Amino acid sequence: MITIDRRKDLSYKEFIEKYQKPGIPVILENATQAWKSSLIFTPEFFRERFGNRTTWFSNKEYTVSELLDLTANSTKENPAPYPVKFNILTQLPEIREFMDPMDMNLVKPNWLNHKILKNKLGNGMDLHIGGAGNCYSVHKDAYDVHAWLIQLYGEKDVIIFPRDQEELMYPGKGGLLESRSPIDIANPDYEKYPRFREATPTTITLKAGEVLYIPSGIWHTTQAHGQNISTIIDQVNSSNYKAWRRDVYVYKKYHNKYRAILDYGAATAIGNAFKLGELMGMKF
Fold first, then answer.
1. Rounded to an integer, what distance in angstroms lies between the CA atom of residue 220 and that of residue 222?
2. Would residue 39 be called left, alpha or beta, if left means φ above 0 and alpha means ψ between -120 and 50 degrees?
3. What topology does CATH give the domain 5-237?
4. Residue ranges of the alpha helices (H) in the chain?
5. Spans of all domains in the chain
6. 62 membership: H or E segment, kind and range
7. What is the pTM of this model?
8. For the chain, what percent of residues have pLDDT higher than 90?
9. Which DSSP string do the residues of 17-50 spell out, in sequence order?
10. Which of 17, 77, 152, 169 is deepest in the core (most CB within 10 A)?
11. CA distances, 222 to each of 76, 82, 265, 271, 273 (Å)
12. How far apart are alpha carbons 119 and 111 in whole angstroms?
């Protein structure tokens, strides 16, 4: 079991030295106060401004308003569909004006902000709307990005496993399956996955306005007990570049070896250029 610090007013320098460099998760209790519009992200906010926006999940189209209704009435016995995702960068870009500065003065440098990587090679920022009974698969974030889980409304439990327990997760084989576990966290099948009994997860409750920093390679999942809204900022920089580049190759190789070689070469060139850019003071 790991202990996860809760911090207020954490300086950028201390964050880098104490958490990002050693790869340690941390809860930032007031990081979103850096935004000019903190704690306004209620269901009403999304319904009024984006209620008619649509996305697809399991071959069905949902609007934001429909999903808000479903999650408000979700129960453990009859949970709402999940995870239905809205990509903020492409489907809800107007939200970004309420999240300025997006990096909360902490998520930097972030190579994924550069136009070269826009919507490519693991870059994404999805809005998640969930309800009671909703839980995510046990996983580590694809492409070994650092994940900044931002709770916008409501609260949910986040279950985090120590870094050295990956083999207890029974990760899949091939492509993105390598970052996914078949274990149902709500009802583990110990006969099928006996070593999962050895796992020592830590559960924390993330509340509205709080941010959980999850370093690359950390296995985790979430469970909701009521309606909640969250988003995630992915981050790549020198601290996780090699793991990110490895995943670029491994995931693409599962589908097309030649495309994997090309993307690995592109990731190498981009990484070397960005590392040099950091040394020269380039901002990401």
1. 7
2. left
3. Jelly Rolls (2.60.120)
4. 12-15, 43-50, 64-72, 241-253, 257-279
5. 5-237
6. strand 60-63
7. 0.94
8. 81
9. IIIITTT--EEETTGGGGSTTTT---HHHHHHHH
10. 152
11. 14, 12, 35, 31, 36
12. 12
